[in-house]
Amino acid sequence: MQSRNRIAYAFLAPYLLIFTAFWLWPIIDSFLLSFQNTRVNPWTFSPGLNWGRLSRDPAFYNALKNTLLILVVQVPVMITLATIMAVLLNSPLLKARGLFRFAFFAPVVVGEVAYAAVFRLMFNLNFGIINKLLNTVGIPSVSWFAEKPPAMALLIIAVTWRWAGYNAIIILAGLQSIPNDVYEAATLDRVSKIRQFFFITLPLLRPIILFCMVLSIIGSMQLFTEPFLITDRGGPGGGTETLGLFLYRQGFVSLNFGYASAIAYTIAALAVLISLLNLWLGREPK
Amino acid sequence: MAELSLKNVVKRFGNFEIIRDASLEVSDGEFVVFVGPSGCGKSTLLRMIAGLEDITGGEIWIGGAVVNDVEPADRGIAMVFQSYALYPHMTVEQNLGFGLRMTGNPKADTERRIRRAAEILQITELLDRRPRQLSGGQRQRVAIGRAIVREPRVFLFDEPLSNLDAELRVQMRVEISRLHKELGTTMIYVTHDQTEAMTLADKIVVLRGGNIEQIGAPLDLYDDPANQFVAGFVGSPKMNFMAARIIGKTPDSVTVSLVNQDAVQLTLPVRDVPAIGEMVTLGVRPEHFAEAGQGDADLAVKVDVAEHLGNTSYIYANVADGEQLVIEREESRNEINRDKFVVAIKSSRAYLFDGAGKRLK
Amino acid sequence: MKSKSRSTATRSLLLHLALTPLAIIWLFPLWMMVVFSTMPDHGIFSPRIELLPSTHFAENFRNLQADTNFLRALTISITVAVVYTVLSVMLTSMAGWALARYRFLGRSIVVAIILGTITLPYFVVVIPQFIMVAREFKMSNSWIALVVPPLFNSLGVLFMRQAFTMMPSELFDAARVEGVKEWQIFLRIALPLARPTMAALSIILFLASWNNYLWPLLINSRPDMMTAPVALGTLIGFTKVSWGGIMAGAVVLTGPMLVVFVLLQRHFIAGIAAGAVK
Fold first, then answer.
1. Range of the domain at B50
2. How far apart are the C-alpha atoms of A228 and C233, rounded to whole Å?
3. Chains touching chain C, criterion 3+ CB pairs below 8 Å
4. What's the whole-model pTM score?
5. What is the CATH number of the domain that holds B353?
6. DSSP secondary structure string for all residues of C15-46
7. Which of B201, B233, B265 is a domain's end point?
8. Do B269 and B320 share a domain, yes or no?
9. Between chains, do A166 and C272 touch, taking CB under 8 Å as contact?
């Protein structure tokens, strides 16, 4: 049976090789890089350089502020919306269920580039369908790309459209795992449907919703393609620059790998920190 | 076909001993049943014989050779699992032949063996079906068929009937018995059901907490249990135990009185006895109580409930608060006087156990 | 009873009144994608409100093909997604099998590392990955660079491990007693039984590869080695390109995935939901 152990390693080895080379080692390497001066050749160890610069860089603080702003607004809005979608989709009264599911879940399969392009066109200042529709109800055109607040709103709208259905799928799966007899018992006890939602459904969904929030927080911290393509590389004038975009610029435009690594670790640390904070706030009441 | 023996077999997971020093001889063609409560190690012992679990210490011999380091497939065993373990994506025919085909057995021989097994078990017409299209009993037959196909020296059964309903269980039990007669192969069978053990076995091995408590023929265990555990485990309903105290002894007998009714005194032919005044346990099987006055001591009990099954009745009664008895009566349809019910104990049908549960003889 | 059925009807009406507008808003961008892809550029950039498709899809696609070699990019995307999916399912199901069904030294460490790092942002690894592949191996603009590094994805390992753990172990013991080799047990019993999980996993992995943007953008910058999303992305932001063409490209990228989604919705949803149930 010792030989069975060897067989286990044989099954595991090919994946483990790739996993180590392209995931584990880079995690470590990235950490090491953040302490190196990568602007000289050869790279030198210079522990304070990147982290010191990060702590003083106004561009970093701008990106951090934008990212956190998007996160704080977008995640709660999207999770609320996703919960509503899931609860309504789960109703036994619903007709044409397949159609509604398609409407909400379809964005999950749409690629970032494709949807970025559509949103750019839809929100175009002069010819975009959104402004045209706003005009028909008497609202003046919004310059979605030229001013910061509307540009941020646009990003939030776009990300919410793309990911609400994804979270709704997860929450719906959670809803369907709640046994029906709990509701039957509550109905016999004359608990109204609304109260059933707040006092049965929501508490039982808590872990799933927390999970969705953590996923969304990690996702928002990494926001890159949307500001890159929709608001044209973080425009207007850095108004929608996110940490992801800032990292991309430092790493792959300026090719300053050490500094970009410090940014990467900041993103990771913040994602973990905010997730933990969120889990702590949402913990089971004692 | 082969004899099998365990020599001081030990199984340990970390510091936890699952099997302690198990030794056993099984002769060729014997039907041996491992029985015991869940967690007693019986399945682990079977899986060690199969080669599915490593052996921590001791030796397992099959057909005159140590098989400790032999792969399961090379031990000449076949196993029937509790869940049947049929491959759901294969037909019955493919299930039966899978092992032989994967190990390169000649095609014609594989087909011959499948046909033979199907005939023995009368499942020929099921060969093209998949497991999910079969009833529980049919699945069980296929699982046994898969073992027969291997033409093993030893059959191993791991609680094979526990997933069947009561009626099928009796039917399959008879069938396994018939199969054993037909094939004459050594069989080792694990169950927690003492009825299965009593009806199937040539030899029963009673296990508890990783220890072999007693090995013997079914009726020997019934008549002559080595300890209180075996006495309680073999027989249904189980043996009654009453607290007693030794009040007198001679070189070849001992007199005890019941703790809860000290007027009840009984003299038993027991030689090896602790001192006067020691606490012991008196055991009487429900079916061994006699009519009042026809035994060696009368015992008045208070009746709780009487169950009348037609041919027999079970009377649940108390010697005193907290000490309950089950008394089996033949066909007693009459109303029972709940307060003045008297039975008799025969000393020839009573057992004595010491404080540690060891049988006193 | 009467009042009960009436309140049910009211609730049903309210439900549909709430959901229908939301569904229309959610479908709107996809609908507009189709509409834009069939309109000539002067139609897209006209002051009129156009909500119905026109007939210029083929022309738009030809424009797109002129702006960037989109057919070549599509070929690359399809090949990469297929090869990646097959390889990833193979590797991760083997690893998942090992972690589910064998007790060996280091097993729990491997599981702990995978679980502990799975939520780390991709940005943490992308820089060293880039340095390794582009600078040390000098493999920019290669097929290997597109396919191999993303194989680190451990979702499949957890997914397959879960599926194999749920299978009754007696099934594999039965085969072992019969002398079936371990790799045959894996191929002939475990994998066939895990087919639904593999289907769900394949869909998720294919979609991830098909839509992958950042890594292909970084590593394959030569126009003849761009994947379709990267090729399309390069056009966004330029003024002298055909937006109808871009939309046609978006439809070509999205349409097949939507069809797959509709046909295999159950696997899709199972794949996404299972990520949460770990």
1. 4-233
2. 10
3. A, B
4. 0.87
5. 2.40.50
6. HHHHHHHHHHHHHHHHHHHHHHHTS-HHHHTS
7. B233
8. yes
9. yes
The predicted-structure confidence for A220-239, as pLDDT tens digits, reads as follows: 999 999 999 999 888 788 89
Query: Does residue A30 belong to any structural domain of this protein?
Result: no
Nearest CA in chain C to A112: C211
For CA atoms C206, C210, C216, C222, the dihedral sign is positive
Is the separation of the CB atoms in A99 and C23 below 8 Å? yes
Instruction: Convert the pLDDT of each residue in B155-171 to its tens digit.
Output: 999 999 988 888 889 99
C4 pLDDT more than 80: no
Q: Indicate the residue of B52, B87, B150 with minimum beta-carbon distance to C176.
A: B52
C270 touches C200 (CB < 8 A): yes
**Domain co-membership, B66 together with B158:** yes
Query: Tell me, what's the pLDDT at B319?
Result: 85
Chain A nearest C-alpha distance from C250 (Å): 5
In a domain, C271, yes or no: no
What would the pLDDT profile of A25-46 be if each residue is shown by its tens digit? 999 999 999 999 988 888 989 8
Is the per-residue pLDDT at B258 higher than 70?
Answer: yes
pLDDT beyond 70 at C276 = no
Q: Which two tokens stand for residue A209?
A: 């919703």
> Which among B47, B52, B102 is the nearest to C184, CB-wise?
B102
Q: How many domains does chain A have?
A: 1
Domain count for chain C, please give it.
2
Closest chain C CA to residue B52: C173
Q: Which of residues 37-96 of A touch C (CB under 8 A)?
A: 85, 88-89, 91, 93-95
Cβ–Cβ of A232/C237 closer than 8 Å?
Answer: yes
- Structure confidence by residue, pLDDT tens digits, B33-92: 999 998 899 999 999 999 998 899 999 999 889 999 898 888 999 999 998 999 999 999
Which distant-in-sequence residues (6+ apart) come within 8 Å of C44 by Cβ?
Answer: A121, A127, C36, C50, C243, C244, C247
CB contact under 8 A, C177 and B50: yes
Look at B98 and C170 and tell me if their CB atoms are within 8 Å. Answer: no
Q: How far is A48 from chain C (nearest CA, A)?
A: 19
